[in-house]
């Protein structure tokens, strides 16, 4: 009899499970699972939204950290709110209540994205192979939407030691294969999320 019990599986679960890390790898890739992704469209100074998030919305290319979430600037009136999946329902309900009756939008895209952090001394060289964006120009606390071959991706610079890539679930396998190929000169290993602390995952060195 088939087991119909629901279970959690990240977009790159199978690919990472089958991956054989290189000896003396210089680059480490770590998928950040169990995240909620909520798209918010509103005015920059929307007080009701900022009250829910616990801080101001970031400005152009900005990344904002609060106790509840990490918020990425996508465009002048659009942001991607990333939070622990366990808090998704309460955060989503609060955001929906905050825009009730007003011209604004809140959409749950949690099933549609994943995040992959790249660390290691040559991680910037690897990214140069994959994107036309000037990755060195991205400062800590900034993000930028760009292309990685034929796929869109958002680069998030959270520390000087690495870069986090946010991509759509449907392109996760494609991007992972691009990274594997580009990392051959440097060696690639897998990292593990050592704990469930959301902010540690988004700021780990």
Which descriptors apply to this entry?
single chain; 205 residues; alpha+beta; 5-stranded antiparallel β-sheet; 6 helices; 32% strand
General description of the model:
The longest helix has 11 residues, at 88-98. The chain has helices spanning 13-18, 47-53, 88-98, 123-130, 172-182, 198-201, and strands spanning 27-32, 35-41, 63-65, 70-75, 78-84, 105-108, 113-119, 142-148, 151-159, 162-168, 188-190. The model has no long low-confidence stretch (mean pLDDT 92). The strands form 2 sheets. Strands 8-9-10-7-1-11 form a 6-stranded mixed β-sheet. A 5-stranded antiparallel β-sheet has the order 3-4-5-2-6, with helices on one face. A hairpin with a 2-residue loop joins strand 4 (70-75) and strand 5. Helix 2 runs antiparallel to helix 3. The termini are far apart. By secondary structure, the chain is an alpha+beta fold. Helix content is 23%, strand content 32%. It has 6 helices and 11 strands.
Q: Quick summary of this structure?
A:
With 205 residues, the chain is of the alpha+beta class.
Q: Spatial order of the strands in the main sheet? A: 8-9-10-7-1-11
Percent of residues in beta strands? 25-35%
Average the pLDDT over all residues and give the rounded result.
92
Helix content: 10-25%
